[in-house]
Amino acid sequence: MAEKRKADLLQGTLDMLILKSLLDGPRHGYGVAKWIQVTTKQALQVEEGSLYPALHRMQKRGWIKSEWGLSESNRRAKYYQLTATGRTQLKSEVQAWSHLVDAISLVLNSNLAEA
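^ thats the sequence. predicted structure below, dont judge the formating
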């Protein structure tokens, strides 16, 4: 039986994933983590120790805002929402990520015999 590998996030990628998770509307922290997990078909799991510091950092930068509300289970939860600045940041990060993916693809598709 093959061991299931967990993907490690490149530095800065978590911010982009969080911003993307909020594009369709507000989510609480657990909802953000669950969205990332489900959307990546369980390939990525964001731990609380990474998620909440990232959310607080992004809130300080003005990319997201938060307010208290009730979760689906009727518990008090902080909901995070994308700001206009956050939308701009997401667009910038997606462009940078696409550029990086293109560059890595060039390397992976190069002929090793040419080196």
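Residues 1-6 have pLDDT under 50 and may be disordered.
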